[in-house]
Every structure is written in structure tokens, then in C-alpha cells.
Design brief:
Elements lengths: L21 H13 L5 H11 L17 H11 L4 H27 L6 H4 L5 H12 L3 H13 L3 E3 L2 E3 L20 E3 L7 H12 L7 H15 L1 E2 L4 E2 L3 E3 H6 L16 H15 L2 H15 L2 H4 L11 H13 L5 H19 L12 H11 L18
Helix pairs in contact: 1-2, 1-3, 1-16, 3-4, 3-6, 4-7, 6-7, 6-8, 7-9, 8-9, 8-11, 9-11, 11-12, 11-14, 12-14, 12-15, 14-15, 14-16
InterPro entries: LanC, LANC-like
Pfam families: LANC_like (PF05147)
Keywords: Metal-binding, Zinc
Length: 391
């Protein structure tokens, strides 16, 4: 059970962090209240704590999981009250989105490769696009973000070498790293190209389409096809590829790797299922569903999960399968859900506890994944829009 917010903030801007702070905890209280299992007063109490200090509006320090967009996502999800705060946040998010787009296009026009934080789900324009779709369902600013992502998918020549437009010269932590000479191509949902793919595809399914968007979705899917690792038993993707792997045209890593929402096969399979649904590509849809079903029915892969979190643990796998099953054209993923949810409940009861009360790695995320198991039409679990799972 998540306790009441502290009377004083334990650290600067703790209260505006969707991953670990008040916005994610508010989502938990909102969904429990909608399901009749909690009180709206708890959500309002946490919202007051979240708004106790000025909200960060610096475009260099704001994304879906931090600052004004994170706070706005949580308040909008409540669907009631906070009209004055939302009006201020709307203006703030619009301004910082325009500023971030301007900087991104300056970088594109200069022919430089991006940092992950420019475009990814957690910190970048993909995450801001998720918020705009969640908030408005469309609009010119969202279309501007989608147009930028379309351009991001186009190859670029850097130092005489043709690379994907999202290639980073940094390491996975988004800073120079001698262990990653020449940088890397990030594939995962949280910080990789699966995030833009899922947003572009989800927007198409909501009839929000800009020039070149279907072609961009097809381009990313074709790129992912280059890096799928396919044996007689397993089909999987690495979370990222190195420049030597890019040059060699093949993955040198062992796998299957940890199945997770953030970097593993489940998140990548869901992104490609969304792409297939947007494109009407039945073969790709079946392949994505087959891969996910094989992954979650393999004890050796599930044994690699070491915690219960949404980000890289069992709760994230269960929520990914739940959303994928709802969009599946056969019953195999639905058949997996009772076993997976029972496993989640059993491990949550008897296994090691999570550290913290946040959304991505804490108890709020676990609670939401468990609540979604019993969700009804009266308690829609749209909170996972921020994970790009809701299609």
C-alpha cells in the first residue's frame, strides 16, 4: 500500500518525476479510484504534493517522464478538476515542444547525429508526442512531432558512412563511452527506435497521419528485420547494436536476452504488432505475436527476470502481453495470460519486494499491472499510454 505523500519534498523535483515520483503514484490512485478500490482523495492529496513547488519548464530538462509533460500527463489522466493548472501546463508544454522541435531541426540541418534524449520515449520528442496524443488526440503540434520523427527515420551520412538517422555516437547511457566506439543503434522501447515506431503506428491507428508516415513505419520495420536473431527455437532482438555489428551486418551477442518492456523482445514485439495493425500487414502481425508467445512460454527467458517492475520486470511483461492479446487475431496470447498473471501474483506475494513506490521500478507500477487483470469497462487502464502499450 502506498502511503500519503511526505510533507516535505525529499529531493529537488522528486514531485514531478513520472518514473519514480508523484505523477506515477497519482496514476495508481486514479485507476484504483475508478475501479472502486480506492479514494479520489488520495489522488488529490498526491496532486497537491506534486504541485507544491514550481514545475520544471526547461526544454532541456523536460520530457514525458520529467517536468511539465509528466505533471500534465498525470493531471489529464484524472479526467476531473485541475482546470487552472492544466491551462498553464498546456501553454508550457506547447512552448517547450516548439523549442525542442526547433533545436532538433537545427541539428538535422547541420547533419549531426542525435543524442537519445532528443527523440526517445523517456526524455525526448517521442514521449512528448505521446502526451500530445493522449491530451488532444491530434492537433498541429502533434503532427509537427510526427513529421520530425518521419525525418528521424531517414538515413544520414556521418563521416562518410551511411547510418540510420537515429544512430547515436554515445553509449547506451547517452554519453561518450569507450566501450561503444562509434556509438550504437538503440532498438528498445524506452530509449530506442521501437518507441518512435510505436508512436507513429498508434497515431496512424487514430487517423493522425503526416506525409511519409506509413513509409517511415515500413522503413523502421525493415531495419528491425535486419537485426532479428532467429534460431530453430527462439526469435529475439538485442536491445542495441554496436558499430562493428552494423558494419558486419549481424548480431554478435548471445541470446535470447532478458525479456522486458524497456529493451527486450516483449516491448519490441508489441511495437511491431502496432506497426502491422497500422499498415494492415497480417504477416508481420502474426510474426510479432508468434515471437511474443514463444518468449513468454519459455521458462529460460522468464527466469532472466529478476524483479517485478514495469520497466524491466515481470509486471511489464504481463502488461505487454495483455495489450498485445487484446489486439491479437488468435487466442495464443490470451491463453498465456492466466498463467502469467498467476505467476505475477505469486511472486508479488512471496518474492522480494520492490524498492520505492514509483511507476517504472516501484510498487505503483506493480499495483497497476495487477489492477488491470481485473479491470472492467468502468475502469479503463489507459495509464499505460505512457509506455506506448495502449494502441
Amino acid at each position: 500500500m502506498i502511503t500519503a505523500p511526505p510533507s516535505l519534498d525529499p529531493e529537488p523535483r522528486w514531485n514531478e518525476n513520472l518514473a519514480a515520483g508523484a505523477p506515477g503514484i497519482i496514476l495508481r490512485h486514479i485507476m484504483y479510484a475508478r475501479a472502486g478500490r480506492g479514494e479520489w482523495a488520495s489522488a488529490r492529496q498526491w496532486a497537491a504534493a506534486m504541485l507544491r513547488s514550481p514545475v520544471t519548464a526547461d526544454p532541456a530538462d523536460c520530457g514525458l517522464f520529467r517536468g511539465a509533460p509528466a505533471v500534465a500527463f498525470a493531471l489529464h489522466s484524472a479526467g476531473q478538476g485541475a482546470a487552472q493548472a492544466m491551462a498553464t501546463l498546456d501553454t508550457t508544454v506547447d512552448t517547450l515542444t516548439s523549442q525542442r522541435l526547433e533545436r532538433a531541426y537545427q541539428r538535422l540541418d547541420a547533419g549531426r547525429l542525435p543524442e537519445l534524449r532528443e527523440w526517445d520515449l523517456i526524455s525526448g520528442l517521442t514521449g512528448i508526442g505521446v502526451y500530445l496524443l493522449h491530451r488532444y488526440g491530434g492537433g498541429n503540434l502533434l503532427r509537427d512531432v510526427l513529421a520530425y520523427l518521419v525525418r528521424l527515420t531517414e538515413p544520414v551520412k556521418d563521416e562518410g558512412e551511411l547510418l540510420p538517422g537515429w544512430w547515436s555516437r554515445n553509449g547506451p547511457a547517452d554519453r561518450p563511452d569507450h566501450r561503444w566506439p562509434g556509438g550504437h543503434g538503440n532498438i528498445g522501447m524506452a530509449h530506442g527506435i521501437a518507441g518512435p515506431l510505436a508512436l507513429l503506428s498508434t497515431a496512424m491507428r487514430h487517423n493522425v497521419v503526416v506525409g511519409g508516415q506509413p513509409e517511415a513505419v515500413e522503413r523502421v520495420c525493415a531495419w528491425l528485420d535486419l537485426w532479428v536473431c532467429d534460431s530453430s527455437v527462439h526469435r529475439w532482438w538485442p536491445g542495441m547494436i554496436s558499430l562493428p555489428e552494423w558494419r558486419a551486418g549481424g548480431v554478435r551477442q548471445r541470446g535470447p536476452q532478458r525479456p522486458s518492456w524497456c529493451y527486450g523482445t516483449p516491448g519490441l514485439a508489441r511495437a511491431q504488432q502496432l506497426a502491422a495493425l497500422a499498415l494492415g500487414d497480417t504477416m508481420r502481425q502474426r510474426a510479432a505475436q508468434d515471437t511474443l508467445a514463444q518468449c513468454v512460454s519459455d521458462p529460460a527467458q522468464l527466469d532472466q527476470l529478476t524483479d517485478l517492475s514495469l520497466c524491466h520486470g515481470l509486471a511489464g511483461v504481463v502488461q505487454t502481453v495483455r495489450r498485445s492479446a487484446a489486439d491479437s487475431d488468435d487466442g495464443r496470447l490470451c491463453d498465456q495470460l492466466p498463467r502469467l498473471t498467476a505467476l505475477l501474483d505469486r511472486v508479488a506475494l512471496d518474492g522480494p519486494s520492490l524498492e520505492g513506490s514509483g511507476l517504472l521500478e516501484g510498487t505503483a507500477g506493480l499495483d497497476l499491472a495487477q489492477l488491470a487483470t481485473a479491470a472492467t469497462s468502468a475502469a479503463p487502464h489507459t495509464w499505460d499510454t505512457c509506455l506506448l502499450l495502449a494502441g
